[in-house]
Amino acid sequence: MPLALLALAIGGFGIGLTEFVIAGLLPEVAADYGVNEAAAGWLISGYALSVAVGAIGLTAAVTRFNRKHVLTALMVLFIAGNLVSAIAPTYEVLLLGRILAALTHGAFFGIGAVVAGNLVAPEKKAGAIAMMFAGLTTANVLGVPFGTLLGQQLGWRATFWAITVIGVLALIGMATLVPSQPVSRDDAGLRGELGAFRTGQVWLSLLVTVLGFGGMFGAFTYIAYTLTEVSGFATSTVPWLLVLFGLGLFAGNWVGGKAADRSVSRTLAIVLAGLTVVMAVFALTAVSPVMAAVSLVLMGGFGFATVPGLQMRIMTYAGSAPTLASGANIAAFNIGNAAGAWLGGLTISAGLGYASTIWDGAALSLGALIGLLVADYLARRVRRSADVTASDPLDNRVFEGSATS
C-alpha cells in the first residue's frame, strides 16, 4: 500500500479520536465549566450534526479544487478547531471548536475515500478505503482509552492538545506523501456531482448505510447500560469491554475491505445478514456475561465490515461524480447513528429494557439487508433490460461505475 494511505489513516485517527474521546471526558468538562449533563451532551450531538452539514455542504463547495489541497486545508481547519477546544475559556468557545473540527470530518472521509481509491489499482480500491478508515477504528481501540486516561490525569485540555499535535503530523504527512490530484476535464464539477443523485442506486445505497449503521450504533449508544444492568458487569470493566468492541471494529474493517475487493454485493449481503443474526443472538443472550462479551466483539466486527463496501457501492454508482456522493454517505453514517440512538431511547422509555436497543439494531440491520437485496435486484433488472453483457460493476474486481437508475 502507498505511504500516502498512512498519512490519510493518521488523519482519520485524529478525527476519530476527536469524535469519540469527549464521551469519556464529559464529567470533567461539565465540572470545569459548571454546566449540566444536558449542556455537556451538546458537545457530542452538536459535533454529529456538524459532521452531516460538513459532509455535504463543505464537500459540495470544493468539488472543483485539487483534492490533495482540499484535504490539507481540511486538516488545517481540524487543527484550528482542536486548538480552539484546548484553550477555550468558556463552554461556548469549546462548542465552537468542536463544530469547526466536526465540519472537516465528513468532507475528509468522503474526499479521502476517493483519493485513497485513486492511489491503487481498481481491484484494490476497497482495501485502500479500509486502510484509511483503519485510522478511525484504531482511534476506538487505542486512542479513546489512552486519550481519556490522559485527560483524567493531566486535565481534559491535555487530550485536545495531543489531538492538535496528531493533526499537525497528519498535515505534514499529507503535504509530503499524498500526490496531487488536480481536477481534470473528466471530473464532473458541482453540477455533475449533484447529477449523481438522480441515480436511484445512489439513494438506495444511502438508505442501506443509514439502516445498517443505525442498527449497530443504536445498540452501541446504550451498551454501557446493557453491559452493567443486563449482563451484570461491573462499571469498572466497561472500558475494557469497549476495547474488545474496538478490536472487532478494526478486524471487521480490514476483512470487509479485502472481501469487498472481490465482490461488494456479496460481501455486503453476507455481512449484513451476519450482523442481523449476531444482534438477535446478543439480545437473546445478553444476560450471560460470556455471550455478551463475544457478541460485542462480533457486533463491532460485522458492523464495521460494512464500511468499505458501503463506501465503494455509492462511489461506483455515482460513476464519474463520486466525491459528493461519497461525502453524502459519510453524512448517512452519522444520520444512522442519530436515528438508531433515537429509536433506542424510545424503546427504553417505553419500558422494554436496555436489551430492546439490540432488538432495534437487529431490525434495522435486517431492513438494511432487505434494502440491499432489493437494490441489487433492481440493478440486475436494469442491466438485463438494457442488454448489458458486461460484469456487474460491484463484482469480479470491476470498478467502472454505472449511472443507471
Tags for this model:
405 residues; mainly alpha; Growth Hormone, Chain: A; 2 domains; 0% strand; globular; transmembrane helix; MFS transporter; MFS_trans_sf
Notes on the protein architecture:
By secondary structure, the protein is mainly α. The chain folds into two domains: about 1-185, MFS general substrate transporter like domains (Growth Hormone, Chain: A, Up-down Bundle); about 190-395, MFS general substrate transporter like domains (Growth Hormone, Chain: A, Up-down Bundle), CATH 1.20.1250. About 80% of the residues lie in helices and about 0% in strands. The protein is built from 14 helices and no strands. Helix 1 (about 5-35) runs parallel beside helix 5. The longest helix has about 30 residues, at about 5-35. The radius of gyration is 20 Å and the shape is globular. The two termini are about 35 Å apart.
Average pLDDT level = 83
The CATH architecture name of the largest domain reads Up-down Bundle
Number of domains: 2
Approximate helicity band: over 70%
Largest sheet: none
Shape: globular
N-to-C order of helices and strands: HHHHHHHHHHHHHH
Helices and strands in order:
Blueprint: H1 3-33, H2 37-61, H3 67-87, H4 91-118, H5 125-154, H6 156-177, H7 189-195, H8 200-221, H9 223-230, H10 238-260, H11 264-285, H12 289-317, H13 322-349, H14 356-385
Helix pairs in contact: 1-2, 1-4, 1-5, 1-6, 2-4, 2-13, 3-4, 3-6, 4-5, 4-13, 5-6, 5-10, 5-12, 8-12, 8-13, 8-14, 10-12, 11-12, 11-14, 12-13, 13-14
